[in-house]
């Protein structure tokens, strides 16, 4: 199956009194995500399932992506927050995908987790650097939680 792992778009800087989880996308972040959604639509006609972190900027990213992708199934997963352990995240994600039986899924999460997910799934890869709104395309086997990185799209290269 095709697994697309995406870093959220550019977000507001951290500031008091707002917690990190409440940071929103900037206008530039929304533009980045729109470019990314156009790229993903060209790669994958149908994204059957979307998984997102519960953080505001990730949920906003997923909503902007969905304007173009029209993903019917969206699930918020706590394992996709930035501080989660990568091995446990891959295990939970693989189980979710296996149960759903989908052939394509988008995961929206955060740095550094996006990088560590790619390296955990494809052991031949070092953790790649993701710019905001970047997407990794992976051929993924949910039975084993492993896969092969096919490409990494950086939004500045898809306009």
What are the salient characteristics of this protein?
159 residues, alpha/beta, Rossmann fold, 6-stranded mixed β-sheet, 4 helices, 6 strands
Structural overview:
The chain has 159 residues and is α/β, with parallel strands linked by helices. The protein is built from 4 helices and 6 strands; from the N terminus they run E-H-E-H-E-H-E-H-E-E. It has a 6-stranded mixed β-sheet with strand order 3-2-4-1-5-6, with helices on both faces. Helix 1 (27-43) crosses helix 2 and helix 3 crosses helix 4. The longest helix has 17 residues, at 27-43. It is globular, with a radius of gyration of 14 Å. The model has no long low-confidence stretch (mean pLDDT 95).
Task: Give me a quick take on this structure.
This protein is an alpha/beta fold. It is 35% helix and 22% strand.
Poorly predicted regions are none
Shape: globular
Average pLDDT confidence is: 95
The portion of residues assigned to helices is 25-40%
How many H/I helices? 4
> What is the CATH superfamily?
Phosphoglycerate mutase-like
CATH class designation: Alpha Beta
CATH level-3 fold name: Rossmann fold
Largest sheet: 6 strands, mixed
| Global structural class | alpha/beta
The tally of structural domains comes to 1
| Termini gap | 26 Å
Order of helices and strands: EHEHEHEHEE
Strand % is 15-25%
Backbone CA Rg = 14 Å
Strand order of the largest sheet: 3-2-4-1-5-6
